[in-house]
Amino acid sequence: MAYTRSCIVSVFAILAVAAPSCNGLSLFLRTTWLNEVGEQVWRPWFELIKRGRLEGPSSPFYIEDLALQNTACCNSPAKYRGCLGPKCSDLGYEPYSLLHREIDQLQEYFPLFDKVHIGTTIMTGLDLSNRTMVDENAALSARIGKEFLERYGNITGTKYGWYLTDEGSVPDLGMDKSYRTDMFHYLSSSMKALKAVKDMDFLWSPSNGDVSLNASQRVTVENGLEDLFCGGLGEFDAPIALHFQDWLGQSVSFEFPFYYNYSTAFTCEKDTVPTYASLDRIRAKCPQGLREVKVNVEMFAERLNNGEHGEDNGANIINADPREIASRLECYRKNNLPLGASWAINHWYGLMTYVNQTVYHPY
């Protein structure tokens, strides 16, 4: 029992140290979770954040921004990028409808945050190589964003930004020119459509996986990313805040009763630090395309489904080991890596209340 208590105390301590020096942690929310887990589960997430905001930046519960991964239901019959929760038909909505019943309950918490980033949804079967479909997806995002701002845009004390829902992959963007061209069209088309609704900042959170890069590959990736951000996107006059997924959750597997397997896991030193350094060099060179680089701290692990990673492959997503999160945050602090919008609010809450779950209850 003392061991468990000391573990979570270390998480609190590291978060308290990291928050002010790294401009604080921000959190993602998949809006459909509100329907899935019920108000008795999700409301305490936000009440803990409210406590942190009242206590100020030194609080271990202090959170800066909220990023809504989706604000509309998806219509895909299968699990797909951005379409991993209940479908429209499950929730009693028409296809690609604004999740107004869920957001109506959530909106009272928006003023807590420095900014709320608005994600939309992704069309069923979106093919990034199909320019017509990508433009239709952009128009759909704009329609959803417009509906959101018409309903919630005048909440006192709330500042909004856009979130680009299709995540993408940092290594693939650098190494695969064809994919980079397709993703450029997705980004530019989406940003143009959303900017026409309202000119606001853009947040994007591509992954850092699933390839652990060697030195030669890192040079190739950096050159490709420079082409993306200093070239086409640099001419778009809408620089992106890029909070890349550290992949330290998606590369870890878990099995009961309590076994975390790190044999193929990414690490802070080998993977996150060099990716951040590369992206930050590009930001310094081309701030007109890339205005900010931060780390999306993955606060989870995966219980594999027949050896398969990924929520879309049926893996169970669980909370990360608190000891591993403490170690990772300490590494980020030592290397001056700023924390960004991180996945996700439910895992953060589980980690920050871990001592209650394991020590005080049910004793």
Describe the structure.
The protein has 363 residues and is an alpha/beta fold. 46% of the residues lie in helices and 15% in strands. The chain is built from 13 helices and twelve strands. It has helices spanning 2-21, 33-37, 39-55, 88-91, 100-106, 131-152, 170-175, 177-197, 215-232, 268-285, 322-334, 345-352, 354-360; strands at 25-30, 63-70, 116-118, 160-164, 202-204, 240-245, 253-255, 259-261, 290-296, 300-303, 316-319, 341-342. The strands form three sheets. It has an eight-stranded parallel sheet, covered by helices on one side. Strands 7-8 form a two-stranded antiparallel ribbon. The chain has a two-stranded antiparallel ribbon with strand order 10-11. Strand 5 (202-204), helix 9 and strand 6 (240-245) form a beta-alpha-beta unit. Helix 1 (2-21) runs antiparallel to helix 13 (354-360) and helix 8 (177-197) packs parallel to helix 9 (215-232). The relative contact order is 0.14.
Give a topology summary.
Elements: H1 2-21, E1 25-30, H2 33-37, H3 39-55, E2 63-70, H4 88-91, H5 100-106, E3 116-118, H6 131-152, E4 160-164, H7 170-175, H8 177-197, E5 202-204, H9 215-232, E6 240-245, E7 253-255, E8 259-261, H10 268-285, E9 290-296, E10 300-303, E11 316-319, H11 322-334, E12 341-342, H12 345-352, H13 354-360
Parallel strand pairs: 1-2, 1-12, 2-3, 3-4, 4-5, 5-6, 6-9
Antiparallel strand pairs: 7-8, 10-11
Helix pairs in contact: 1-11, 1-13, 6-8, 8-9, 9-10
